[in-house]
Amino acid sequence: MNAPSDIDLRPDYDGGSIVNLMATLMASLGGHADGYLPLAAARLDGLAEARTVVLVVVDGLGDLWLDRLGRGGPISAHRRASLTSVFPSTTASAVTTFFTGLAPAQHALTGWHVYLRELGGIAAILPLTARPGGQPVLAAGADLRAFFRHEPVFDRIAAASTIVLPKWIADSQFTVAHAGRARRVGYHGVEEMFGAIASVARAGRGRRFVYAYYADIDALAHAHGMASDAVREDFGRLERAWEKFLAGIAGTGTAVVLTADHGFIDTTRESVVDLADLPGLADTLVLPLCGEPRAAYCYVKAGREAEFEHHVATELAGRATAYRSADLVAEGLFGPGLPDRRLAGRIGDYVLVMRGNHAIRDQLLGEHRHPQIGVHGGATPDEMLVPLVVAHA
Question: What residues make up the domain containing 319?
Answer without folding.
Answer: 269-373
